[in-house]
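Subject: complex prediction, re-run

Hi both,

The earlier run crashed halfway through, so I resubmitted it with identical inputs.
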Amino acid sequence: MTDRDRLALIQSLSKNLNPIKKPGNILIASGIWLLVSWLYVIFAAIQIGPIRVGALQALTQSSHFALESTTGLMVSGLFCLLAFRESIPGRDNDQIMWLAILVAAVWVGIHIIGIITPALEPSMEGKRAHCVMEAFFYSIPPLLLGYSWIFRRYPLNTIRTGVYLGISAGAIPALLMQFACMYKPMHILSHHIAPIMVITLIGALTGVLFSKKTPSPSTLSE
Amino acid sequence: MGKAQLGDEQAYRILLVELGEVISAYLHARFGRLDFVEDCVQECLIAIHCARHTYDTGRPFRPWLFALVRNKAIDMLRKQQNYRSLIGKSQINHKLNDSFDTIVNRGSVFAALKPEHREVLTLTKIIGLSTAEAAKKLNVSESTIKVRVHRAIKASRKILEAECR
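This time it finished cleanly. Structure:
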């Protein structure tokens, strides 16, 4: 290609230029996605079965349980913020990424510690028959909603964006199951938190599918 | 860019012409006078066009622009495989006889790479040898070449990102 080709390209790109709508504030967009996702997951989970009796009160009675829940909430929030920030080129996300990884490690770590010293008395009370499937399937619609929102912008690394969104979408039902299903740290790790890995993989694969195909100059001029 | 977002064709044209020069100079300084640089400039201009709605006029323009440019440059480097079909066998042989430094013309990114990374990128992405041919030339296995190419591209990305910090 030559300089003349470049000028022709610039002509075609600037021809019939329409005003464009700027994307909204990232914090607001990610906040809305998080809120809508939470409402959807809560609504869907309640359709299948009730919240475990005494689960909400346990938040105020056990600081360990409150910490487990708060870190889970932070994981979904931080990874959601990261995914939305990835959709705008040039944002430095390194610090938030390390914070999110740290919080996620703490979240899993607290549950591993909980195998020895559980936050609440482990019991089968409130057990859901298919909590693994619920944790998995509830996160799919938020994942797709997030994709349709984020990929209207311009994420440069679609796989990384997919991974962040997958973790965030997977963490929402995982945390909800903390209240809606039986409490036993090993069960939480294997049945509620483990599905996040599958969702993350789906997120990454969807990122591959969504990876930007640069349009040709002729397409752009039409 | 603010005017371009409002649909001002003239302002957008001027911006793209100027950015074309800036990007061209940036890429030449980092990758030497490689043939793929002009292609990359045009890919960057298309990316700027497609991503122009994501630029926030209240924020600095440079990080946004160079994030796109870095991304496209690394993408182009990674996908640089069809070069061989564009040039004749005699030219390949001629280039093989040149020193690596001559071929990459001391682009700062190549200069900052480890010698084995620079060597493998030159052979596979610039001269256009296949993995098997590069492996034979360097007396290493094909998997070693693949690993080195992967690491070289990763290192190139890090070098470009480090400049912006």
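Chain B touches chain A through 34 residues (CB under 8 Å).

- K.
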